[in-house]
Amino acid sequence: MIVATGNRVRLRLAELRDREPAWTWMARSDLTADTLGPSLYADRSTPGFDSFCDDHPPFVFDGTQPFDGRALIIQTNGLDIGFLGYRQINLQHDLVELYIWLASRALAGQGHGSEALQLACGWMQKTFGVNRFVLRPSRRNVRALRAVRRAGFRETDLQAHEVVGKLGLPRGNHADEVLLFRSLPLPPVSLTVDPQRVYVFIDSEFTNLTEPRLISVGAVGTDAAAFYCELSDWPRDACSEFVRAHVLPLLDGDAVPHPVAADSLARWLAERAEHAPVTVVSDSGFDRWAISDLLGREDLPSRVEWLRVPIAPEELDALATELRLRRHHALDDARALRYAVLSAHGNTGIIGSTPRSATSG
User: Fold this and answer.
1) Which residue of 24, 177, 198, 331 has the fewest CB atoms within a 10 Å radius of its CB?
2) Whether 180 contacts 169, CB under 8 Å
3) Does residue 188 belong to any structural domain of this protein?
4) Taking Cα atoms as reference points, which of 286, 104, 81, 316 lies closest to residue 189?
């Protein structure tokens, strides 16, 4: 599946059959010596295929855990010419690490890698709500540094080890790594309403910011429908103090297993999409993560797309008070979000719609 197209290259989602070619391009091409092995990289050996598979498990190629990492294949003129991957999306710091290599030296120096990185950043922002990106090449890899800078990435003034610690990044591959960042502007805090679409406003609650586990999901639509479910498979001891104080006391207590909740949400969205295309709106990438985590896949149901409208938390706080909603209850937060977005268009929808629960068939 093609996910982004530029002037020189396009990106498609990688499949498991791409794992061996990707390893060959990395470890057995005429570009390998520029990044791995002696004599330039005696500190980083060339991995065997089994080691590569350990570092790139099946979910990287099948999209079942898109917030834990994913692979893309770079194409030009219908030919596969390179590999571009991203590691776990750090939602707390709104950051993801990218990495890239081309299939052969003949492809280098033509702008393929730079454009692929630009396309990947735009696609990831639109698809998963992440806005900041980092690459960590070796300072010895002059060719890669040039390509990354052409893609709009810039080196931080801080020491690499300081940045790694502050952002909670894993240990890098190179002692002389260079951290280069690119930040995209946030999406607009507005929504151009299409009367031919159904808009579903969604919110989620989860255990903590660093290693979230989904607790509940709430959604309300412009068609007056509502959805709410609580999950039963999250560990209470993983909850942050904030969640213990502000989220858990508001739970209804009618929790269901993950598969039941997933099936119910998928059917509820499909019902909306039967009548008109659906845009799922949330104010945070965490909610896009919640949808993927619940449904167990990277793509949304047919005729459903996602859009981030970053409403300030302070505005939602004020609306919860004004509308007498329970702040940090997933369904009521979805109602507040709907009001905040649609009130700009003079149409706030039906605040008091009755939710369909995950157990109601």
Assistant:
1) 24
2) no
3) no
4) 316
Residues 252 and 314 in one domain: yes
**Structural domain range at position 274:** 198-357
Peptide bond into 240 cis (omega under 30): no
Q: Tokens 């991203």 identify what position? A: 86
Sequential DSSP letters for 177-210: B--EEEEPPPPPS-----TTSEEEEEEEEES-SS
* Separation between Cα atoms, residue 239 and residue 231, nearest integer Å: 14
The amino acid that residue 193 corresponds to is V
Counted residue by residue, the chain has a size of: 361
Strand ranges (E), 207-299: 214-221, 226-231, 255-256, 278-282
Tokens for 16? 């498991």
Residue 215 to residue 207: CA distance in whole angstroms: 7
DSSP summary character for residue 172: P
> What would the two tokens of residue 29 be?
């091409």
- Tens-digit pLDDT string for the chain (361 aa): 999 999 999 999 999 999 999 999 999 999 998 889 887 888 888 999 999 999 999 999 999 999 999 999 999 999 999 999 999 999 999 999 999 999 999 999 999 999 999 999 999 999 999 999 999 999 999 989 999 999 999 998 877 778 888 888 888 888 888 999 999 998 887 788 899 999 999 999 999 999 999 999 999 999 889 999 999 999 999 999 999 999 999 999 999 999 999 999 999 999 999 999 999 999 999 999 999 999 999 999 999 999 999 999 999 999 999 999 999 999 999 999 999 998 855 554 443 344 555 644 3
φ/ψ of residue 227, rounded to 5: -140, 140
Last residue of a domain, one of 183, 217, 232: 183
pTM of the predicted model, to two decimals? 0.90
Beta strands in 36-145, from DSSP E residues, in sequence order: 70-76, 79-86, 95-102, 132-135
Residue after which a domain boundary falls, among 155, 183, 211: 183
Residue 49: Cβ within 10 Å count: 13
Q: How far apart are the C-alpha atoms of 48 and 226, rounded to whole Å?
A: 51
Q: For the chain, how long is the longest CA-to-CA vector?
A: 68
Q: How far apart are CA 31 and CA 36, in angstroms?
A: 9
**Residue 232 is encoded by which pair of tokens?**
């039963």
